[in-house]
Design brief:
Layout lengths: L1 H15 L8 E2 L2 E9 L8 E7 L4 E8 L5 E7 L8
Antiparallel strand pairs: 1-2, 2-5, 3-4
Length: 84
């Protein structure tokens, strides 16, 4: 059940996130900002950003949905991800 919820959340985020991201830079390196809006999501709903590690998902950021369904995930990363 948890895996179904995780997959649904990830697919929902991919669908709901705006196509533009604003790169930012922090002390540790490159940064990110992801803005999105979910329809029919109650205020306070949690949105998670996770990275697929070697054997499991690793949580990177969490945001709460506001009254209009909007959320923003932002932060910095120590290095750019690599393609495999």
């Amino acid at each position: 059940m948890k895996s179904l919820l995780l997959v649904t959340t990830v697919l929902g985020m991919a669908n709901a996130c705006s196509k533009s991201t604003t790169p930012t830079t922090g002390a540790g390196g490159a940064g990110y900002q992801i803005n999105g809006q979910l329809t029919n999501a109650p205020a306070g709903t949690k949105v998670y950003l996770a990275e697929l590690g070697e054997t499991q998902f690793v949580s990177r950021d969490t945001a709460s949905v506001d009254e209009q369904g909007r959320f923003t995930l932002k932060g910095s990363v120590p290095e750019a991800g690599s393609t495999r």
